[in-house]
## 1
Amino acid sequence: MLSKKESRLETLEEYIIQNQNRFPGATGELSQLLRDIGLAAKIISREVNKAGITNILGFDGSTNIHGEAVKKLDLFADQQLISALDRSLITCMVISEENDGIVRMSSKNGKYIVYLDPLDGSSNIDVNVSIGSIFSVYMREPRYDSALRESDALQPGVRQVAAGYVLYGSSTILAYTTGLGVSLFTLDPSIGEFILSDRMIKMPDYGNIYSINEGSYNSWDLGLKQYIKYCQEEDQESGRPYSARYIGSMVADIHRTLIKGGIFIYPHSNRYPNGKLRLMYECNPLSFIIEQAGGMATDGEKRIMELEPTKIHQQTPIYIGSKKNVEDVMKFLKEYKSVP
Ligand code: P6P
C-alpha cells in the first residue's frame, strides 16, 4: 500500500500521462488506449456489481469459438471493450476470446493490435466469484501494404508494449505494465476513478501457496505429481506443507499470487493435451505482469513470453508465480521427464 505521504489521490489518467513522459517521443496514443480500457472497465464493473439485480446473468444462447456457452456479461464486456478501443482510432484490430477471427476496427491504420479476454472466469459469474478482463497490446508491424492479416497478430509475448487485467472482486482493481514495472489501481465508485494503490509492485520471491485444479491429477506428468507431493510434505524451514488455493478464475488466482507469492499451474492433461489457457490473451499478458513484478512464467520448459504463436487462440500449459516456486516445479518436471 502507499505510504501516508503518497496518499494524495493519483488517478489512473494522471499516472498514465506521467508514465508516458518516461517514453521519449511518446505520441500519447498508447496512453489513450490505456485510458479507453480504463473507461470500459468502469462500465463493466458497474454491470458486474449489479448483475444480480438485472437480467444480465445467465446465458445469451450463443456459444463462443471454443463451444463454451456465452454468458450475457461476457458479451457485454466484449462489446464495451471493443467499442471503447474503436472510438480512439488507434487500434487496427482486436482478437477476443468471444470472436472467431480478428475484429477489424474502424481505422485500418491504427498502430496497435489488442488481444482481449473480455470476461475471464465467466463460469463463476452466476455464483458471485471474482472474474476479470485481460488485455495485451502489440504494435502493428510496418508492412508494404495496409491489408490486415491474422499473421500480423502472431507475435511472441516479449513483443507486448502493454498488458494488464481488471479484477472484479470485493473491489475492482486494474493492474497494468508497459515494461516499466507493475502498478495497481483501485476503483473508487463514489468518484468513478481508478486510484493508484500500489506503485511498481514486487512479488515475493517465494511463497507457500500452490494453486491447481487437482481434479485432473490422474492425467498429470509424474514430475508434477511429485512436485505437488513435495508441496504437501511437512518441512517447517521451507514453510511446507503449502496451502492450496484455487478459485478457478485465472485473474483472481494470478492476482493473489502477485500479492502473496506462490505458484499457479494449469498443466496439459488428457482433457486439454495442449493445456486449457490461451497463450495470447491469458498467458502472455499475465506473464508480462508477473515477470515485471519479479516472478517467472513457463510452459514447464520454455519461457511463456518467448513461445512463437502459430494460432491466435492457441493454448499452452502454464507454470507461473514466484521465481523460486517455478524453478522448483521445473526441477521436478525435468527430473521425472524420462520416468515412464
Ligand atoms: P478449470 C476460466 O474458465 C478459465 O479460463 C480460467 O479463468 C481459469 O483459471 C480456468 O479456466 C479454470 O479451469 O478447468 O479448473 O475449471
Note: Residues 120-121, 123, 213, 248-250, 253, 276 surround 6-O-phosphono-alpha-D-fructofuranose (CB under 6 Å).
## 2
Amino acid sequence: MAFVEFRDVSKIYQMGEVPVAAVRDMSFDIERGEFVVIVGPSGAGKTTLLNMLGGMDTATSGTIMLDGDRVSAYNKKQLTRYRRYDIGFVFQFYNLVQNLTARENVELASQICRDPLPADEVLAAVGLADRARNFPGQLSGGEQQRVAIARALAKNPKLLLCDEPTGALDYETGKAILKLLQDTCRQTGRTVVVVTHNSAFTAIANRVIHVREGSVAAVEVNPAPQSAE
Ligand code: ADP
Ligand code: ADP
C-alpha cells in the first residue's frame, strides 16, 4: 500500500441546481519520503485536491488513505485531529500572526500537537536561528515564508502540504524556498506535496502529477531528480 492513496475521488459542488465537479474520479499514489509537485492550469482542481488531502475539505465520493488510515471516512472530530497532528500547511501568503515573534509563531503550532520538534531546532533548520525574536513585519517575504515552513515542521507532521509557496516571492527568493523544501524532504525523509505554477519545481520533484479539468492527466515519476541550487 502506498503512503498516500487517492482512489476514484470526486468533489462535486452544488451551484444552485447545477452540480460542478471540481475533481472527478481522481486516482494517484504518493510514496513515503517523496517530493511531489502538482501542476495544472487555473481551475483544474489542484486546490480542491490539496484541501481534501489536508482534511480541510471532504470528498463527495472515493477513498483517501494516508499511512494506512482511511481519511475519507473520518468524522468532523477526527478530521480536526488529522489537520492538527498529521498535516503541516504552508500557504502563499505565509499566514503568520503579526503580533507574535518568529519563535512564538512556531511555538503556537507546537502547543497544539502531539509530538512537536523544538522551536529553536526548526528555526535553525530553515536558516533563521538569529531572527527568532523578530516580528513578521521585520522580516522579508522569503524570511516570513521560512518561518511559516518552520511552523509547519514544528508539528512534526506526516505530510507537509504547500499551496503556491513561492507565489508571492521574486524568482531568486522563490528558488531558495524551493531548495529549502527539497532539503527538508531529503534530509528528514518527510513527504512534501507542493501545488505550484512555478515550473522550476518540476525538475526537482520525485513525482509530478499533472491535473486537468478535475482529473489526473499524467504522472511523471523521477527517482533521481535534480538538486535545487
Ligand atoms: P488558484 O488555486 O488557481 O490560485 P483558487 O483556488 O482560489 O485559485 O480559485 C480557482 C477558481 O475557483 C476561481 O475561478 C475561483 O473563482 C473559484 N472558486 C474558488 N472558491 C470558490 C467558491 N467558494 N465558490 C465558487 N467558486 C470558487
Ligand atoms: P485550481 O486550484 O487548480 O485553480 P480549484 O480546485 O480551485 O482549481 O477549482 C476547481 C474547480 O472547482 C473550478 O472550476 C472552481 O471554480 C470550482 N470550485 C472550487 N471551489 C469551489 C466551491 N467552493 N464552490 C463551487 N465551485 C468551486
Note: The pocket of adenosine-5'-diphosphate (ligand 1) is lined by residues 42-43, 46-47 (CB under 6 Å).
## 3
Amino acid sequence: AKSDGGNGWRFFTPEHDRRISVVRSMESDLRGALSRGEFTLNYQPKFCLVTGRLTGAEALLRWTHPAKRPISPADFIPVAELSGLIVPIGEWVLATACEALTRLPADFRVAVNLSPVQFRRSDVAETVAAKLALSGIAPARLEVEITESLLLENNRATAGALEALKALGVTIALDDFGTGYSSLAYLCKFPFDTIKIDRSFVQTLETEPGSAAIVRAVVGLGRDFSLKVIAEGVETEAQKRMLLSFGCDEGQGYLLGRPMPLEALLQIATNADSR
Ligand code: C2E
Ligand code: CA
Ligand code: CA
Ligand code: CA
C-alpha cells in the first residue's frame, strides 16, 4: 500500500471516485469564480468567405483560476452544467457580450453559446430580454448558438423558449451541425437563422470525400431553407477555397482569426469599419 504523502490513499482510490472528487473540487472553485472575477470572454471573428469582410464574432468563455493553468471550457462547462452554476455564469456571459456590443460598430454581431441547462433551469428568453434592455443594443446584433442535444429533449418548453427568443429579434444558430443525432425535421420545426457546420467535417474536407459531400449537402440545405451557413474550424487555405466553391457563406477558424480579447477585436472591427 502506498500513501500519496498526506492526502490519504489516493493511489488505491478507484478511478470513478477520483473523478468525482476532481469534479467536486472544481465545482467548489467554480462556485466563487464569478464573484472573484475569474471569467473573461474571448471573441473569435467570423468572416464572409466571398468578400473577406469581418461580420461578427463568437464569444467564448475563459476561466483563469489564480492557482491553476487556464482550464478549457470543454472541461469546466460540464461541471457548471451538472451543478446548475451555468445559469448565473450564462447570465454573466450574456451581459458581458451585450456590453461588448455597445462598444463595437453598429453592424457588428456577437454570438453567445447557450447550454441546454439554461433552457431547462431558467427562463433564458427572459434573461436575454433583460440584458438587451439594459444594454440598449439592437436585438438583431445578438445571435444565440444552441446544439442539437437541446432539440433531442423535444419538449414544448424548448420550442416555446426558442420562439420567444426569435420574437425578441435575436437570431438563432444550430451549432456543431451534423455531429449529434441530427434530424432534418429540426430545420423546419425550430426557427433557425444559421447552421454552423462542425469542425470535424471541415478538418477532413481535403482527405475524406464523404466530408466534402456532407458539407456540400448542408450548404444546399441552407440555401433551400434560407439559412445562413457558416463553417467552423477553418485552418487551411485549401479548406477555405473548398468552402467558398461550395457556396458556404461565412467561415471561422484559426486560419482567419483566433479567439481574442475584446480590445484586440475592437481594433480589427474598427479598422475594417474605416476601409
Ligand atoms: P464551440 O461552440 O464549438 O466553439 C468552438 C471551439 O473551437 C472553441 O473552443 C474555439 O476556440 C475552437 N476553435 C475555433 N477555431 C478553431 C480551429 O480553427 N481549430 C481548432 N482546432 N479549434 C478551433 P473553446 O473556446 O475551447 O470552447 C469549447 C466549447 O465550450 C465550445 O465549443 C462551446 O461548446 C463551449 N463554450 C465556450 N464558451 C461557452 C459559453 O459561454 N457558454 C456555454 N454554454 N458554452 C461555452
Ligand atoms: Ca459555438
Ligand atoms: Ca461549434
Ligand atoms: Ca464544434
Note: Strands lie at 39-48, 54-63, 109-113, 142-147, 171-177, 194-197, 228-231, 250-251.
